[in-house]
Amino acid sequence: MRNGGTLEQLKETGHRLSAVREALELSQVEVCRNIGIGETTWNNWEKGRRRPDPIVLVRFANVYGVTLDYVYRGDMQGLSSRIVAKLLHRRCRPDHNRGRQAPNPLVCESAHHVGNDIEVA
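^ that's the sequence the OP posted. Answer follows.
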C-alpha cells in the first residue's frame, strides 16, 4: 500500500473516531478514562497522526457499542439506530464538516427530521 493511501486511511479512521465520540456526547477525557489510554494518544488517533491500537479499539467498541467496521471502513451496519441518527445528522450539518468535503446529498436525503430526532430511511 502506498503511503498516501495509508495517510488518507488514518485521517478517515480518525474522523470516524471523532464523529462517533461526539455522537455519543463524550469528551476525549471521558473516553480515555474509560478505555485506559492517555489523552494525547486518543487525540493523535482522531487527528490521523497515529495508527490506533486495535486491542484498545476493541475495548472502545465493547464499552460504547461501536463496531470496528464503522471505525475502519465507515460501515454503519450494526451500530445502534441512535448512533446512526446522530452520525447522519452531524454529517449533514455544514458547520460540522469543518473544511471537509461537502455533505453527501444522498446520505442527507436518507435521514429526515422527525421533531428533534432523525429517522433513517
